[in-house]
Design goal:
22% of the residues lie in helices and 27% in strands. The chain has 347 residues and is of the alpha/beta class. Helix 4 packs across helix 5 and helix 4 packs across helix 9. 46% of the residues are buried.
């Protein structure tokens, strides 16, 4: 086994501990990655604090992983030592079902194996990117384009693909009016991606305090939802609304902003259930959800972001600042994504 340092949680809500975990020895198609940066996702906090039910502890969070290949298995053909690579939210799937074969491993019928807080198909727990090294099958690794800085690329492995996938699936582009609800870690990337796709982009934010930044990211319009007049003025306006917030919203109010045939897609993950009135969707409106993206689409997203100069705005932190950063995420006190410098783990 390969032993490596990590930040782990002994139980739900416990403080981080510096521990040593074991990674498997390289199999034929495995790559060993020295983790340089790991992004902090709000879902790390939900799982680490037990918001979504029973977690697997000890837990090493982190599914926005970038680093350098330091060793490869005997049959690896895609990557070489020294390559800049990333690992996102999943590290295995059945590879046989209709979804895996179509490049949508996130919907694997057997159940995708997630990067952390999961069991692999042999029953072993998976550990994430708050660590020094990770071993992953080459099929679940992506290449980081040379024009993307490694630290800034990390949040693209979750926040980037989580917004790119539904925007692509619902054909965001010229002539489409798109609204992004919330301009946090997910939303500020969704704005940039929708703009690059050619859509007319509106931000619906709780207050006015992100207006200037929103226009810098490429929005065409900005409205504060704390003003009730916003919902009157924009009634029936949008073809597509992407809800990125993790708070419980008045879904009926946001459905009222869709035109006939419009779609509201949720990618934010509040801990509480949400509800809506069936009358709100009678004008052929749809309410849906979207998970991350498959490996092929994640690589496509990275290449798209590199081509269009899309990068997250990050705050880089040391490994000993993670607990404080989690607290700030819960308070919404980050512009817009924390990234841990994992080279500081032992310092």
């Amino acid at each position: 086994m390969i032993r490596t340092h990590a930040l782990s949680l002994a139980s739900a809500g416990s403080p981080f501990e510096h521990t040593t975990i074991e990674r498997r020895e390289l199999r034929g198609h495995d790559v060993l990655i020295a983790i340089k940066f790991s992004g902090i996702c709000h879902s790390d906090i939900h799982q680490g604090e037990g918001d979504w039910g029973q977690g697997i502890f000890p837990m090493v969070p982190g599914h926005e992983i970038v680093g350098i290949v330091t060793a490869v298995g005997s049959h690896v053909s895609t990557y070489s030592i020294g390559d800049r690579v990333g690992v996102g939210c999943l590290v295995d799937s059945c590879r046989k079902c209709q979804y895996c074969l179509s490049g949508e491993e996130q919907y694997c019928k057997r159940g995708a194996v997630y990067t952390y807080n999961a069991l692999d198909y042999e029953g072993n727990p998976t550990y994430g990117g708050y660590s020094e090294q990770i071993v992953v099958d080459e099929e679940y690794v992506v290449r980081i384009p040379d024009t993307l800085e490694l630290d800034a690329a990390a949040p693209l492995l979750c926040a980037g693909i989580t917004t790119y996938s539904p925007l692509k699936h619902w054909n965001a582009g010229p002539g489409m009016k798109v609204a992004i609800v919330g301009m946090g870690g997910l939303g500020h990337l969704g704005v940039q991606i929708a703009h690059a796709m050619g859509a007319d982009v509106t931000v619906l934010s709780q207050s006015e305090n992100k207006r200037e930044e929103a226009f810098r990211f490429g929005v065409d319009h900005y409205y504060a939802t704390c003003n009730q007049s916003t919902f009157t003025e924009l009634a029936g306006t949008f073809d597509f609304i992407l809800n990125t917030v993790s708070a419980k919203l008045d879904i009926d109010a946001y459905l009222s902003l869709l035109g006939v045939g419009g779609s509201l897609v949720n990618v934010g993950l509040p801990a509480e259930p949400v509800s809506y009135n069936t009358f709100s969707i009678l004008p052929r409106k749809s309410i849906s959800g979207s998970s991350i993206g498959g490996i092929r689409e994640t690589q496509e997203m990275l290449d798209f972001c590199a081509e269009h100069g899309i990068v997250p705005q990050i705050e880089r932190i040391r490994a000993d600042e993670v607990y404080r950063a989690w607290d700030r995420v819960k308070r919404g006190d980050v512009r817009y994504r924390f990234v841990i410098d994992m080279t500081t783990l032992k310092q």
